[in-house]
Amino acid sequence: MMLLRRFPPQPALALLACLAAAAPAPAADAPPPDEVVLQNGSKILGTITASRDGKLKIETDFAGTLTISLDQVQSMRTAEPVVIKLADDQVISGQPLQVEDDKLVLSSPAEPARTYAVDELLVVNPEPWELGIGHKWTGLVSFAMTMQRGNTDTDELDYKLETVWRSQKDRYTLRLNGELDEADGQKNADNWMAQGKYDYFVSDRTYYGFSALAEHDKFTDLDLRYVLGPYIGRQFYDDPVFTLAGELGLSYVDEDYIVAEDDHYVAATWEFRASSNYLGGDSRLYVENNGLWDLEETSDYIVNTIFGLSFPLLWSLEAAAEILLEYDAGAVAGVDKLDETYSFRIGYTW
Asked: Which sequence spans correspond to the domains of the chain?
C-alpha cells in the first residue's frame, strides 16, 4: 500500500504569493495627450512643455515641437499638473493647465473656479530663476573675418564675447571684443574693449545700474580710455517681434593717449538696443547704439552703432552679418573720425 504524505497548506500558499509578487504587473495606462484647440478649429495633440512671452510650446509626434501664439488658442488642457506663473507674480502648482473659451480656468477642491484672461498667463513651467532661485546664464562667443576701411584698411580677425547672468532682481553683464591683425609681418590693427555692468531692477521694466568700461586702440593713438558711472535703464518693449531697451547715465572718463595730450572729463552716456524676429525662422534683426558726450567740450562726442542680422545654424551655432560704425568727433589729428567695419561672424550661444 502506497502512502502519500500530506504537507500543510501554508508553505504552498506562501510560494504562490511570492510567485505572484514576482510576476510583472500589467502596464499602467499611459496618460492621455495634452490638447490644444486653435481659433480656426484645428486640434493639436501632444505634450505642452512651456509657455513664455505669449508663445506656447507643444511637443508632437508628427511635427516635433510647435510654437503657437496664445492669441491663436481657443482652448487647451494638460493631462498632468504644471506650474503656472501669472502676470501678478502668483505661482500656482499642482493642477493641470486649462483654458476654455479664451479664459484661463484655475480651480481647487477648497475654492470655486477662478477665471483669468489668457494674457494673464505669464509662464508655464517657469525656470528656477523666474521663481526667484538663482540666475539664468546666457552668452555668445564668436569670431569673424572682416573687411575694414577707415583708419586701417585690413582683412582681419575679430572676436566677441557677451555673457549675462539674470535673476528676478538683478543682472550682471560682461562684454569683451576686439581685433588683431598683421600684414607683411607688421601689426596694423590692435584694439579691444572690455565692459562690466550691474543692473538692479526696481520694477519689471525699470532698473538702475553701474558700468565700468575700458578700451584700447593703438592705431587711433588711444592707449587706454576708461569710463565709470551710473545710469538708469528701462525695458520699453519685450515682445520677440520687437524688443527695445534704453539707458541714460553720467560717467567719469579718463583718456590716456600714446602721443596726444591726456584728457579727463564728465560725460553723458547712453545705450539703446532693439531687435525683432519679424523675418521668422528664428532669425533676428538688431540695432545697438551707444555713446558718450563730453559735457565740458560739447563738440566732442563718440557714437558707436551696430546693424546686424543673425540666424541659427546647427546645434547652438549662430551666424551673423554686421555693420559697425564708430564715430569720434574728438579724434586726434591725423586720425579719421569714422571707422566702418563689415563682418560676417560665426559664434556659439548658450
From this structure: 34-126, 131-349
How far apart, in whole angstroms, are the C-alpha atoms of residue 321 and residue 311?
A: 9
49: left (phi over 0), alpha (psi -120 to 50) or beta: alpha
Task: Tell me which amino acid residue 161 is.
Answer: L
Express each pLDDT in 263-294 by its tens digit: 999 999 999 999 999 998 789 999 999 999 99
Question: Could you count the other beta carbons within 10 Å of the beta carbon of residue 179?
Answer: 21
pLDDT of residue 251: 98
In CATH terms, is domain 131-349 a member of 3.40.50.790? no
Provide the grid cell at 209. Answer: 545700474
Residue 69 one-letter amino acid: S
- Nearest Cα neighbor of 328 from 254, 220, 229 is 220
Q: Render 32-88 in DSSP notation, one character per residue.
A: PPEEEEETTS-EEEEEEEEEETTEEEEEETTTEEEEEEGGGEEEEE-SS-EEEEETT
Residue type, 152: T
| pLDDT recorded at residue 185 | 66
Identify the DSSP state of 6. Answer: P
User: In the chain, which residues have pLDDT < 70?
Assistant: 1-30, 109-110, 146-149, 152-154, 184-185
